[in-house]
User: Fold this.
Amino acid sequence: MNPYAELVPVFVVALAAPLLTGLMPVRSRVPQVVLLLLGGVVIGPQLLDLAGPDSVTLLADLGMGFLFLLAGYELEPDLLRRRVGRRAGGAWLTSFVLGAAALLLLPGHQPPELLAAGAIALTTTALGIVLPILREDGRLGGRLGRSVLVLGAFGELGPIVAMAVLLGTRNSGTAALLLGAFVVLSLALAALPDRIGTGLGGTLMLRSEHGTGQSTLRLTVLLLVTLLATAQSMGFDAVLGAFVGGMVLRRWAPGDVEALERKLDAVAWGVFVPVFFVSSGMGLDVDSIIAEPLVPLVFLAAMLVVRGGPVLLWFRQELPRTERVQAALYSTTTLPLLVALTEIAVEDGSMPTDIGAALVGAGVLSVVTLPLIASRMGARRAPAAPARDDGTAEDPPEDVVRTV
Assistant:
């Protein structure tokens, strides 16, 4: 069998998605992630059967790795230590508890693995989708933008850590100890450039960072693959290694940082990440969604209560009412991390395929509707300088904003 034949429709969908997105009106534009998933459904086994997820396994796995590498690179740790970070952390923990409690109300005895996977799934945030919308609306530099940024960071980091501890192959106590060891290893890795960056190795790296050498990009790929393999060998999901890899890369940032960021976007979004979403669409259990069309709507309502409700509670003093509702809607917007989580949970038996498909369906609905509603709630205006914890103005954290 020709191993390249099934790659052709996958990359046709990858090319068509941004082109179709560009044809849509700006104010009602659907994120290309949705089109990639839908394109995967069309070419997958349940419709045209032109390709299957097994044909792109390695490319899709690397795509998921790059997706979380870029998510980890976005995160500015200093924001998590401020008051807004503490409120966002409290909101996420409240969401996780509410999610587990809501699933306990389901009829019948639910296994702990399903409860954990479901609770995590209800608390994720698609930070890479909402940030471009906030920037376009001129809200990224104000209180709303800062709040959504840190809420989204916890909506990505919290589920990833919870996935590593609760959905790994080891018991939670052992997983927590190994997670600590992994963090120590990552901190040591992050400090490594301080020792070697000014020596001969650093000089050679900078000399060959462009042209045919591309040393800094190759170093990034090496970092990603190494941490993916390390996390996997410790019994964690590979996404933890990818996310930490992005945080380490943020500290390394070798050579021409802006050029490296452009290269990462080109490699990740030009090749690997679209394949991951198309592959996820090809593996989506569409029959289950069609058989129970109301279930995704129920899950979307649960996400609004579980994820959005705590935001309204914890940010009642941080934001005025309208912006607080907007922040809740943006925080409930989810899809990339939800797709990865459900795919992992279904593969290891923690979640039935029909539940996983319904959750992804709810995520698609959230991406299509919630950012649009939130964007139209507030009038377009120039960004205001966000206030510090002491009430004085500060410059917006533009250095932590990148589009995933």
Remarks:
- The domain at 34-379 is CATH 1.20.1530.20 (Na+/H+ antiporter like fold).
